[in-house]
Amino acid sequence: MVIEADFYRVRLRFKRLFADPSIFEDQRRATRRYLLPGTTGDKTASVYQITSDIAPTDDAGKPSEIAGTARYVHQGRVVRSEYFENANVTLEYADFGSGISPSGHQRLWKKQKWGRMSFNLDEFRHEHLRIDVPDTSELYEMLRARADPTTLVDVELPELPDNFFRSAVGYLETRLKQLARAKHETIEIYVARDLLLEEKEALEKRLTRPSTQSTVYIMLSKAEGLPQL
Questions:
Q1: Quick one: pLDDT at residue 116?
Q2: Is the preceding omega at residue 149 within 30 degrees of 0, hence cis?
Q3: What average pLDDT does this structure show over 114-124?
Q4: Which residue among 68, 140, 155, 202 has the highest number of C-beta atoms inside a 10 angstrom radius?
Q5: Greater model confidence, 148 or 88
């Protein structure tokens, strides 16, 4: 099946960036918290953040260094927090149907305010994607039928630029986990290109075929815990 999605890349420049939990705790959901504050359920799951580690950089592209500590208001309380000066934060994410239009995404980022911190929107990039992926409902039912109590399959995605490839992985992960959650089951996704050599070899041996840079491993478990790689 062909999915349509929107890929976004934003670069934010903070004059003073504090260690705000809305950015630096549970970092993979930072974009969701910014775009969809106070929203839960399937709508938030439609925004998939590709950037896994938020690492502020200076204008030369080097990791930012802590400039000092200062008072900062967080959730109505005044706290002391470390901060970076003139720090840049780059976020890449995909939208699989949140209901926010591309112009809506740009408008939200142009508010240039994250909590009590101001930033400049130095880059806003949008691309519309059409990507071939397996039908997630059929894939999930196949996984359920094979699980006893776990099963592992590999899926070969098209050869794509890395950010588009990550968007496709995000779509599979989001949709499969939604289906599994309704059945009190667990889905784990492993991307072959991200695995250590011994981890990849273990999975290749288990499935008796080699992987490629476009291979994604999907494990479904009906049990409480998952086996380790």
A1: 87
A2: yes
A3: 95
A4: 140
A5: 88
Q: At residue 141, what are phi and psi to the nearest 5 degrees?
A: -65, -35
Residue 19 to residues 1, 62, 77, Cα–Cα distance (Å): 42, 18, 14
Is residue 211 classed as helix, strand or coil in its secondary structure? coil
Nearest to 218 by CA among 160, 161, 137, 150: 150
Q: What pLDDT is recorded for position 226?
A: 46
| Three-class secondary structure of residue 217 per DSSP | strand
Token pair in block for residue 18 = 């504090």
CA proximity to 80, closest of 92, 88, 93, 68 = 68
Tens digits of residue pLDDT in 7-47: 999 999 999 999 998 899 889 999 999 999 876 656 667 89
Amino acid, res. 132: D
Sequence-ordered list of residues with C-beta below 8 angstroms from that of 186, at least 6 positions apart, any chain: 180, 220, 221, 226
Output the DSSP codes for 9-36.
Answer: EEEEEEEEEE--HHHHSSGGGHHHHHHS
pLDDT for the residue 126: 96
Taking the C-alpha atoms of residue 176 and residue 167, their distance in angstroms, rounded to an integer, is 14
Query: 99 vs 45, 151, 158, 166, 209, CA distance in Å?
Result: 12, 34, 26, 21, 40
